Amino acid sequence: MAALFLQTPPPKQGTPGVAAQDAPPASGGAGAPPSGGMLTMLLPFLILVPFLFLTFRRQKKEQEARKSLKKGDKVVTQAGLIGELIEADERVAKVKIAPGTTVQVLTSALGPFEPAAAGATDKQLSDLKEAKAGASDKK
User: Fold this and answer.
1) Which residues contact 87 (CB under 8 A, 6 or more apart)?
2) Distance CA 36, CA 92 (A)
3) Which tens digits make up the pLDDT trace of 21-31?
């Protein structure tokens, strides 16, 4: 295949000092497709297949997690708002984000709020407070 790129093109018919060729070249050179043509055409699709598979799996898991949400659950939106699920239908959900404040969001933008991640944040905050208190005691 690399040999095709290294060959020089034949001269044009009307060029002076060049003998005219009556017969086509015997090697089939420029007219024949390269031997790896089919693989080269399918390679981008073969690369995309695993990514599509993983994307569909993730979407299915997220959809199942949204279906398992019920009234009173802690939820988080894609925008990062954390609140309590008041009611939900197939398209729109109402989320209470503060006392007396309810917002409507698309159900597809909701997900369950994992308290384990919040617990880690609380622990980090308490560690930071202890470190600051220890630093102020040393002064």
Assistant:
1) 71, 93, 94
2) 51
3) 665 555 555 55
